[in-house]
Each structure stands twice: as C-alpha cells, then as structure tokens.
Design brief:
Layout: H1 17-32, H2 36-63, H3 65-72, H4 79-94, H5 97-120, H6 132-151, H7 154-177, H8 182-185, H9 192-209, H10 215-245, H11 256-276, H12 280-311
C-alpha cells in the first residue's frame, strides 16, 4: 500500500540526503561563477530539503529507534553530516557565519557516532557509498577552513587540517573495500569514488589559500591539492566512459549521489584555480558545472516521474 501523498518523504532512505548535497554544491558552484540569482534559488531549495530531512532524521531518532539504528549502520547515513557541512559552506559564503558555525557544531557532534556505527559494519566488498566516510570528514574540513577564512580563527585551520588528513586515510580504507564491479553496475553512488577525491581537493584548496600555512607547508598543500584534483578528474573520466559503455537510464534515488560528485568536481576545479593561481582548472570547472546542472535537472525530472508513478492508483 502506498503511503499517503503528504507523507511520502517519511519513507525516504538515508541516501536521500545526497539530494541536499547535490543541490548545495550546485549552489556553491553557481556562486563561484557569478550566477548569484540561480545560486540563491538553489540555496533556498537546499535549505528546505535540509530542514525536511533533518525533521525526518529527528522523528526516526525519537519515534522509530529500531529503524534509525538499522539505517545508521549504513554508509548513506553519513549524508546527514555531509549535507549539513555543504549547507554550512554555502551559508558562510552568503555571510551567515553564525548559522554556518552552528551547522559545523551540529555536524561535528553527529560525525563520531555515525562514523563508528558505519565503520563497525563495513564489509569486504562495498558500493560507492562507502566513500562517504571520506566525504563526511572532508566536509568538516571544508566548512572549518571556510569559517576560519571568514573569521581569522587559526585553530579552525588546524582542525581543518586534521580532518583533511583523516579524510584521506578513510578514503584509502574505503578504496580497499570498494567493489570495482560497481563501475559497470552501480546505480549512481559509484560516482562517490571520484567525488570523495574532489571534496578532498576542495578542502586542500581552502587550506592552501589560508595564510596560516607558509613556506614548505603551503607548497606541500598546494601540491597535494593539485594531485587530488588530477585523481578526481581521472575518476570522472573513467566513470563517464563507464556510463556510456553500460547505460543506466532509469531513475534511482542513488542518482543524486552522481550529481553531487559532478558538482563537487566542478567546485573543486574552480576553488583550486583560485588558490593556486593556475588558469586551466577554472575553465574546466565552468564546463563541468553546467554538466552538473544538467544532471541535476534530469535527476529532478526522474524523481518527479517516479513519484507520479507511485501515486498513480
């Protein structure tokens, strides 16, 4: 029996949090390229989606503990942390530093408990969602670095650096567990394998731009950022070719986990160009951003069509 139309969102899995990530990173990319009206519209939608899913998260925690605990064991649960940090970054860029700081605290509080339950249930062969352990951690790094830049709080840069290195270690662990057959068969979240590197490059670019790091430290961060961006673009190319070789045209909620890495790679290119003074990532980022916007629109249309089918008697 289908749920009542007013409550369809109550049956959404944790993977739905990727829609917040996708919309938020599109807003950030549009802001980076000067499309402020579109960016603000995407920001408003990101905020509404975040509030909706945060309410659902709280309702399950307080009213359906068994379901909450079962879902908290899976990597998609970490989209709660990632989505909160992405929204926080965009609000910081908007000038709402206090709200962004509150979101950083909220994400930081949620991170250890969710990370512990997810890692405790890891298996040998995992889908692309396994890389969310890296994404969530690097999300903390990016938001901390952005807030540090906005308020000149050096201790936040140090916290961002710790999360940056921890995120890289978690990426390596997830890579060892990743089922590479997902490149050909994944329903969308296989793209997180590249998106996790892209958000790592974004974090590296924010650290590179910080005045806290000078001399050898700055050079090392700059080199690491460029290396991570190159790897992210490599994953992008591999996954794009795989999509063409093994088409998966049908809508799946995990397709939002495709849109997010597409947008994140664009944002990482744009931010890396600004932090390093190299021009080519900016050009690449502009092209990739509109690919991500097109993917967002197609996925939103797919969601609407899927909901229409579900509600049809």
């Amino acid at each position: 029996m289908n749920p009542p139309p007013g409550h369809w969102w109550a049956d959404l899995p944790p993977a739905a949090g990727a829609a917040v990530n996708a919309t938020g990173i599109i807003s950030i990319g549009l802001h980076q390229t000067g499309h402020d009206s579109l960016s603000l519209a995407a920001l408003a939608l990101t905020g509404l989606l975040w509030l909706l899913l945060a309410g659902d998260f709280a309702a399950r925690l307080l009213g359906d503990r068994a379901r909450f605990e079962a879902e908290a064991d899976t990597p998609p649960a970490l989209t709660a942390v990632a989505a909160t940090t992405v929204l926080g970054v965009r609000l910081s860029l908007f000038g709402w530093q206090t709200v962004a700081a509150i979101l950083l605290v909220l994400a930081t509080v949620c991170w250890p408990g969710l990370m512990f339950t997810v890692v405790r249930h890891w298996q040998r062969r995992m889908p692309g969602a396994a890389f969310l352990v890296c994404v969530a951690t690097q999300g903390l790094s990016v938001l901390a670095a952005v807030l540090a830049a906005g308020g000149r709080r050096d201790w936040l840069d140090w916290a961002a650096l710790v999360c940056f290195f921890l995120g890289l270690l978690l990426y390596l662990d997830a890579l060892l567990r990743f089922d590479f057959r997902q490149v050909a068969t994944g329903a969308g979240d296989q793209w997180v394998a590249g998106g996790a590197l892209a958000i790592s490059a974004l974090a590296g670019s924010k650290l590179t731009a910080s005045p806290v790091w000078a001399g050898a430290a700055h050079t090392a961060l700059r080199t690491a950022t460029l290396g991570l961006l190159a790897l992210a673009l490599g994953w992008y190319a591999v996954l794009a070719v795989a999509e063409a070789r093994w088409p998966r045209p049908h809508y799946d909620i995990r397709r939002w986990a495709t849109v997010f890495p597409l947008g994140m790679t664009a944002a990482a290119c744009l931010s890396t160009a600004d932090a390093t003074g190299i021009d080519w990532p900016h050009t690449v980022g502009q092209v990739l951003l509109w690919i991500a916007v097109a993917a967002w629109v197609l996925t939103a249309v797919g969601l609407g069509a899927a909901r229409s089918d579900d509600l049809r008697p």
